[in-house]
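Sample entry (171 residues):
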Amino acid sequence: MNQLRSRTLRRLFVLFLALAPTGTLLAAPPVSLNEDDWFVVKMQDKKCGYMHATTRTVGKEVLTQSVMALEIARGPSKVKISVDQKYRETLDGKPLGFVQTMNLGQIPVTVRGTVKGKQIELVTTQGDAKQEAMHDFDPEIKFAWGLRLEEQRHGIKKGTSFNAKTYESSL
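Predicted structure, serialized as tokens:
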């Protein structure tokens, strides 16, 4: 079961990255940013869900949120999956924190991450259970807005590629 869940989470993360909006590339950090994008999620050319992505500035922070909801048929049963990811970053793309809520069953799992220097504090809750941990955090890691800024620095011409470190709490 854990291997199936792990593979499912990896596939959802790859799907999330493939569907995440790149939006308009900006010449400088925005004074005000308010983006609202909707997507249809398809599997085998059939609609199985949606994704709603928003990016906005609040003061000197960029808040990015992606909500994805899927319904997949597994034999006679339908499995509902939802993922709500929220990222907080500085205007120049420095990660501050995130909250991710994943619902793969009856009780959602929420992971809250707060960057504290070269460490990240993770608080995971599921129902009444709560687990706290501190982990090393690579300062080169980028969240959603930082990845968009990295894309801007490298350009989007055909054949352009670059490597970037990112963080996914569920993997």
